[in-house]
Design a protein that fits this description.
The complex is a heterodimer of chains A (182) and B (325). With 182 residues, chain A is α+β, with helices and mostly antiparallel strands. Chain A has 8 helices and 5 strands. Chain A has a 5-stranded mixed sheet. The longest helix of chain A has 15 residues. Chain B has 2 domains: 239 residues, Aldolase class I (TIM Barrel, Alpha-Beta Barrel); 67 residues, no CATH class. In chain B, a hairpin with a 2-residue loop joins strand 11 and strand 12. The chains are: A alpha+beta (182), B alpha/beta (325). The interface between A and B is large, with 51 and 49 residues.
Chain lengths: 182, 325
């Protein structure tokens, strides 16, 4: 059975290479503001996470030269950029950046990305499902949240980011080679 | 034909209504419904808001309380019934005869649907639910051919609802013990088949290996489509070689059979997937809404390909058209 031909865009390798030597420290204030906004505007995420909010989630965009560690504790949620995910995490989720953002924004279905092998999960599967379901219910405009504080640069920055990610609106899953066994 | 759509979260519920659902089915955030997964389902307040949202838009809400009550904890299920009725549910979807009896005695005006978990697969069984508890609709088990459904609908005095899209299992619905055997927890009692607390993924010999409890379920080579980590979709090593014994990982897509199902007297068609995302709900519900609208207008419309959303990236018409392979 061949896997489906993926329609999920990936960050061009040359762009990823250009990012590799850049320091991660400047990303931290952006991530801090982002998680603070999400906490303020989407508090229901933490209720849906329940006990899983105390766990640590490694998010690995496979087409970027760095990853993220998310600890969604309701009192002090945090996300940080790291060169490589530490071994001590409860969960690791890996996939193309556009796929991961598409999951948050409601463009992709998590099970479909798992079936097509575009998404890999490792560790506490219960926590993975809790996070996925909590985020899907929250209807987060992630790209919009990232560029919100950019003033006059907001619109062009959002256009550039969306163009790079090219989220296929309402696609739900990658394009598949349709097969039927009866 | 009515279009009955799933929702596991309030956001998915709104998407289902906006995409054209005639009715949305959902459940409480506990073991009383057969999709009791972490981060999923509705609090009482969320269900109240969802029912208001649906009713303002002309859609109905069916509340699934379709697991079998545990001995000594029946009050949990009774409370779910009482609350769903008080919140204004248009119908309750039930599998357990004791719970149906409770509804018939305490809420005689409440519309009652027989869940697929009750496995009512013949006219005699369905007539029992209608006569004993006043059931108004039965969700048909996914073991019947279209001609068999036509015979049943002609012999019963209640409506029928048939699945047309989504995940499939071995279809011993309400009676399957495979998950219990592997983990001690089942969809019938705890509302979870292959509970995620017992699932692990790892890598071995270049393959992704899924495990459920102590059992290795499957190993997927690089690029091979994956499936849910359920025993029924496991790939087993036997003396005849390795392969799928119970069933292959494939999802139901009966869009092409909608005219036949309508002709067979089916009242409503149902989409599986309360555990799926807004993206899935939007795509599948909109596609079936369009196909049914075309059918109503007497136009032949090609259904959209939903294969990208399916388990194993493969579709089947299941038992509706039984063939020897």
């Amino acid at each position: 059975m061949p896997a489906s031909e993926t329609a999920i865009p990936t960050v061009p390798p040359f762009l990823s290479s250009l990012m590799r030597p850049l320091p991660l420290l400047p990303l931290q204030p952006v991530l801090a503001v982002l998680i603070s906004r999400i906490r303020r505007h989407h508090p229901q995420i933490f209720e849906r996470l329940g006990a899983h909010a105390d766990k640590s989630f490694g998010i690995d965009p496979t087409d970027l030269p760095f990853a993220f560690v998310l600890t969604p504790h309701p009192n002090s949620p945090a996300v940080s950029a790291v060169r490589a995910l530490p071994a001590s995490l409860n969960v690791r989720i890996a996939g193309p950046l556009a796929g991961l953002i598409g999951l948050v924004e409601g463009d992709f279905d998590g099970d479909a990305l798992f079936f097509s092998r575009d998404l890999r999960v490792d560790g506490d599967v219960e926590a993975v499902l809790a996070l996925r379901n909590a985020i899907d219910d929250a209807e987060i405009d992630l790209v919009g949240e990232v560029v919100r504080g950019l003033g006059p640069l907001k619109a062009p920055a959002e256009r550039a980011l969306r163009s790079l990610l090219r989220p296929p609106r309402r696609a739900a899953g990658p394009e598949a080679g349709a097969t039927s066994w009866n | 034909m009515e279009l009955i759509c799933p929702a596991g979260t309030p956001a998915a519920f709104k998407v289902a209504v906006d995409a054209g659902a005639d009715a949305v089915y959902c459940g409480f955030r506990d073991e009383t419904n057969a999709r009791n997964f972490p981060g999923l389902n509705f609090s009482r307040d969320e269900l109240r808001a969802a029912i208001t949202f649906a009713h303002e838009r002309g859609a109905k809400v069916l509340v699934a309380i379709n697991t079998f009550p545990r001995a000594g904890a029946v009050d949990v299920w009774h409370r779910a019934v009482d609350d769903a009725v008080a919140l204004g549910a248009d119908a309750l979807i039930l599998a357990d005869v004791g719970l149906m009896d409770y509804v018939a005695r305490h809420h005689p005006d409440q519309r009652l649907h027989v869940s697929v978990q009750a496995a009512a697969a013949n006219a005699d069984a369905i007539r029992f639910y209608v006569e004993a508890f006043g059931a108004r609709r039965v969700v048909l088990p996914r073991v019947l051919t279209v001609p068999e459904i036509a015979v049943i609908t002609s012999e019963i005095a209640c409506e029928t609802e048939a699945f047309v899209f989504g995940g499939l299992c071995v279809m011993a619905e309400g009676r399957c013990s495979l998950s219990s055997y592997a983990t001690g927890r089942s969809p019938n009692m705890q509302g979870v088949c292959s509970p995620p607390s017992h699932v692990t993924y790892g890598e071995a010999q270049g393959k992704v290996v899924s495990r459920l409890g102590a059992f290795t379920i499957n190993a997927f080579a690089d690029g091979e489509p994956a499936a849910y980590p359920t025993l029924c979709k496991g790939r087993f090593a036997t003396s005849h070689g390795a392969g799928y014994i119970f069933e292959e990982p494939a999802s139901l897509d009966a869009a092409t059979l909608l005219p036949s199902l309508r002709k067979a007297g089916v009242t409503a068609v149902k989409i599986e997937g309360r555990q799926r995302s807004r993206a899935y709900i939007e795509s599948v519900v909109r596609s079936f809404r369009q196909t049914i609208a075309a059918l109503d207008a007497g136009v032949v419309a090609e259904a959209a390909s939903l294969t990208a959303l399916t388990e194993g990236q493969t579709t089947t018409v299941g038992a509706y058209r039984k063939t020897w392979r």
